[in-house]
């Protein structure tokens, strides 16, 4: 049973110029514990596809299913976007604990979990800081560990390192790999960088579709060293 089963998925937007096919008959199975990168040029439908997996966009045709893990209350997915969607009025640790707060986890327990994840990315010292007091790379670390602290069935990432400078990006790529090796979380990772896709992914899905014109999808299996 795949962790994520996307079958013949399409997304058609109604625009003033008529129907706009953003994703055209796209299918993808992701195995539990797999790190799948979806790479392709801007506008080929990557974000739309990810939003549909996350339940944040309507599926016009086809279906997407995420297999639940059987742990009650465990969220099916958590999403990390390019722009750190963290709350400016909350401290770093309260941001990381936010998803747990929404699930009604007691304060002591959620702060312990948040603390654990902050320590894992070297942000323990910044727990009491506010987002405006830390760098862009740190803010994106906060977004990433906030998603992981929820312990979702699948982790969905949309260009999570896209807004960072090249040096910070390399550091975060290494951190992501290390965390993935330790957690074996099922990941779908959107990027327009083939370099990044090949570095991070077990499997790279190359979307060469253009709006309204689904050209081809290549599915590349990579050996992990
Ligand atoms: P639908 O009604 O098909 O579910 P949405 O609710 O997502 O579509 O969006 C409503 C309308 O807003 C769309 O039909 C589209 O014309 C416009 N729209 C929303 N987001 C965008 C975007 N990123 N680019 C272009 N048009 C957009
Ligand atoms: P990518 O993530 O690969 O850059 P997107 O999924 O953001 O691509 O967009 C795919 C196509 O769908 C683009 O042509 C985009 O303009 C269009 N699109 C995205 N959202 C909407 C919307 N809400 N309404 C109309 N068109 C949209």
From TrEMBL:
GO terms for molecular function: ATP binding; ATP hydrolysis activity. Residues 4-225 form the ABC transporter domain. Keywords: ATP-binding, Nucleotide-binding, Transport. The keyword Nucleotide-binding applies. Belongs to the ABC transporter superfamily. This is NitT/TauT family transport system ATP-binding protein. The chain holds residues 10 to 234 of 268 of the full protein.
């Amino acid at each position: 049973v795949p962790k994520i089963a996307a079958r013949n998925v399409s997304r058609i937007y109604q625009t003033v110029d008529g129907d706009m096919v953003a994703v055209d008959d796209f299918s993808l199975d992701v195995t539990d514990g797999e790190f799948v990168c979806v790479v392709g040029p801007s506008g080929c439908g990557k974000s739309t596809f990810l939003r549909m997996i996350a339940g944040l966009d309507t599926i016009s045709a086809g279906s997407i299913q995420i297999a639940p893990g059987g742990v009650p209350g465990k969220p099916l997915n958590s999403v990390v976007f390019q722009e750190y969607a963290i709350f400016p009025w909350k401290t770093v640790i309260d941001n990381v604990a936010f998803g747990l707060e929404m699930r009604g986890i007691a304060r002591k327990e959620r702060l312990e979990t948040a603390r654990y994840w902050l320590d894992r990315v070297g942000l323990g010292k910044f727990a009491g800081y506010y987002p405006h007091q830390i760098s862009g790379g740190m803010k994106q670390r906060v977004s990433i560990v906030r998603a992981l602290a929820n312990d979702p069935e699948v982790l969905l990432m949309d260009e999570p390192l896209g807004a960072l400078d090249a040096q910070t990006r390399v550091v975060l790529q290494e951190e992501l790999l290390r965390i993935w090796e330790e957690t074996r979380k099922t990941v779908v990772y959107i990027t327009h960088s083939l370099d990044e896709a090949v570095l991070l992914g077990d499997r790279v899905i190359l979307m060469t579709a253009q709006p309204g014109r689904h050209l081809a999808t290549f599915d590349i299996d990579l050996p992990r060293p």
